[in-house]
Amino acid sequence: MASIEDEKSRKGTAALVAAWVLSVVLAFVLGQQIGEGKRLPAATPAAPTATNAAPEPAQTVPTPDPEVERILLQLPRRVENDPLAKGRVDAKVVLTEWSDYRCPYCARWTMQTYPELQQYVDDGTLRIEYRDLALFGDQSVATAVAGRAAGQQGRFWNYYETVFADFGAGEQPDPTTDQLVEYAQQAGVPDLEKFRADLTDPALRQQVLDDSTEARQLGITGTPFFVINTHVINGAEPTENFISAIERAAKS
């Protein structure tokens, strides 16, 4: 059992990271307010984004102090056979992603940037670890549970790609249970009866809620949000920003 001192230390380090993440978000928001014709920040992702929108410039990110860097480097879970992760467990670079399946910016990132990062996964440089941040009520939670249900049958990333590809084509979705099962079929989930039963699994729902709570404790309030080793990217920035951060982290 953790001591009172351990609990105080845990809360203190979480508060430190939250304060730094908040400074990143504020820098992002201020940059958006100063610029002209820029999209809304990721913290308010409900408005659809045009697919032909011009890429935004990279945002200036404050340099974390050594203690925050240490904590950021401890964020990756590096669990062997984690269904919500892809890439070598010992990859030098880990991209931790927080997303909501009903977020149009998340869909845009998944369709435009995520495929371009596969080369770094394939050569062993990059590991991607997905975490839920359910922002839009019970339907966000239900869709996230469905992703984990697909993951229990080894089809998480197929489901992830299928759902975002469909959701990215229109307004914020309101999927029914039957639609979630249809996505599972498209994603190649082999046992659809088990998948349907797992949609009401309280353990999977709790995993979604736990990830969402952890994100909020870290000061993350919008999606998508990424940490690439010690580099934070708030929102669906241009693909080249992610590639630059990955290659820089790989050389460090």
TrEMBL record:
The keyword Signal applies. Keywords: Disulfide bond, Oxidoreductase, Redox-active center, Signal. PROSITE patterns: THIOREDOXIN_2. This is Thioredoxin domain-containing protein. Residues 41-58 have a biased composition (Low complexity). Residues 50-251 form the Thioredoxin domain. It holds the Pfam family Thioredoxin_4. Residues 41-65 are annotated as: Disordered. The keyword Nucleotide-binding does not apply. Signal peptide: none annotated. Belongs to the thioredoxin family. DsbA subfamily.
